[in-house]
């Protein structure tokens, strides 16, 4: 057939080894190397989990949008699968960012949620926007139309993410801490190193989960094809193996 | 390398058992639980795929055996 059936799992093994190693290093840095922050104390350790989760999820939404553009341009179902899986894992990450952020807010501000803080509310809006991706996608029965409309959604929502981020950065209320490019100078070196390692670990985990999900979906799709082939053994094989996103 | 690690552990700030501890533990536990839920769901899906593959393999083997028997009968006749 000329298509390597294991292509979605390619690189999964080294990623699966590298991810726990990276997390072990990051957690060691978080709890043994990074100093206790003067203002918030030990509570600030949530920062190394919450912020990388949020940043990776937002980047994942943008990556999903980029794959959606490629799908619309090239009409290749594989890019639709990449876009779907990127958004799927990013929604899980966003869910984690919201819960850990809420725990941090309770410990730091005494409230689980602050409605007048633009960073929190805008992130919730982005999360809710992407939560509608699933019902929107599966409300359409025709698979080609479903993939096309989902791609249009992913591109529009993906463009909304950086615009939303910029709007929040320019807003007046700054209760939520800023990490980069602040007038106070941002993080000290040891904290910055730990933070960058946390982001790298989260990004590595995101990539591993995306690959894992794609491999599983590809295996499921191939199983369906096998079943169809057993029912109609003379049917022509398709030239491309794309993971099923149904 | 070992000296560096030892130096880090010795110089590590003491983990204070203050009010922040339970929130930090809670946040990290939430992350681990989310991961475990995801892995659990994926494990169930993979088990389904494995079951499906076994069924397909059994059907394919059965067909091969049936085809062999038919060929054998044709040669005999």
Please write out the topology.
The complex is a heterodimer of chains A (246) and B (77).
Chain A: H1 12-33, H2 47-74, H3 77-109, H4 118-131, H5 133-138, H6 143-169, H7 189-231
Helix pairs in contact in A: 1-7, 2-3, 2-6, 2-7, 3-4, 3-6, 3-7, 4-6
Chain B: H1 2-11, H2 20-76
Explain the overall architecture.
The complex is a heterodimer of chains A (246) and B (77). Chain A is mainly alpha-helical. Chain A has a domain at 45-173 and 186-217. In chain A, 70% of the residues lie in helices and 0% in strands. Chain A has seven helices and no strands. Chain B has a domain at 37-77. Chain B is built from two helices and no strands. Chain B has helices at residues 2-11, 20-76. The longest helix of chain B is centred in the middle third of the chain and has 57 residues, at 20-76. Chain B is rod-shaped and about 90 Å long. Chain A binds chain B through residues 28, 31-33, 35-36, 40-46, 49-50, 53, 92, 95-96, 99-100, 103-104, 106-107, 209, 212-213, 216, 219-220, 223, 226-227, 230, and chain B through 8-9, 12-13, 15-16, 18-21, 23-24, 26-28, 30-31, 34, 38, 42, 45-46, 49, 52-53, 56, 59-60, 63.
For the secondary structure, the number of strands of chain A is 0
Shape summary of chain A: globular
Which ranges of chain B are low-confidence, i.e. pLDDT below 50, for 5 or more consecutive residues?
A: none
Helix content of chain A: over 70%
Q: Spell out the helices and strands of chain A N to C.
A: HHHHHHH
Shape of chain B: rod-shaped
Q: How many DSSP helices of chain B?
A: 2
Provide mean pLDDT of chain B, rounded. 80
SSE series of chain B: HH
Strand proportion of chain B: under 5%
């Amino acid at each position: 057939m000329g298509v390597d059936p294991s292509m979605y799992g390619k690189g999964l093994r080294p990623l699966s080894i590298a991810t726990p190693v990276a997390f072990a290093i990051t957690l060691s840095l978080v709890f043994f190397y990074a100093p206790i922050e003067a203002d918030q104390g030990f509570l600030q350790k949530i920062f190394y989990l919450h912020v990388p989760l949020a940043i990776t999820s937002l980047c994942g939404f943008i990556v999903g949008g980029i794959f959606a553009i490629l799908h619309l341009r090239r009409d290749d179902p594989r890019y639709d699968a990449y876009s779907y899986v990127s958004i799927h894992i990013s929604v899980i990450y966003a869910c984690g960012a919201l819960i850990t952020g809420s725990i941090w807010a309770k410990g730091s501000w005494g409230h689980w949620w602050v409605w007048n803080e633009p960073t929190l509310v805008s992130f919730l809006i982005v999360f809710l926007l992407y939560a509608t991706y699933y019902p929107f996608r599966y409300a359409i029965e025709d698979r080609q139309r479903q993939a096309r409309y989902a791609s249009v959604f992913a591109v529009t929502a993906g463009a909304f993410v950086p615009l939303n981020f910029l709007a929040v950065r320019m807003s007046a209320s700054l209760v939520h801490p800023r990490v980069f490019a602040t007038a106070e100078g941002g993080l000290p070196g040891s904290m910055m190193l730990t933070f960058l390692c946390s982001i790298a670990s989260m990004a590595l985990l995101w990539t591993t989960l995306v690959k894992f999900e794609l491999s599983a979906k590809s295996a499921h799709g191939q199983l369906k094809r096998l079943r169809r082939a057993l029912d109609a053994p003379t049917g022509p094989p398709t030239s491309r193996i794309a993971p099923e996103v149904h | 390398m070992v000296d560096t690690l030892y130096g880090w552990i010795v110089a590590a700030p003491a983990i204070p058992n203050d009010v922040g501890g339970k929130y930090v533990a809670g946040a990290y536990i939430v992350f681990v639980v989310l991961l475990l839920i995801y892995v659990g769901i994926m494990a169930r899906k993979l088990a389904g795929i494995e079951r499906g593959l076994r069924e397909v393999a059994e059907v394919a083997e059965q067909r091969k055996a049936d085809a062999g028997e038919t060929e054998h009968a044709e040669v005999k006749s």
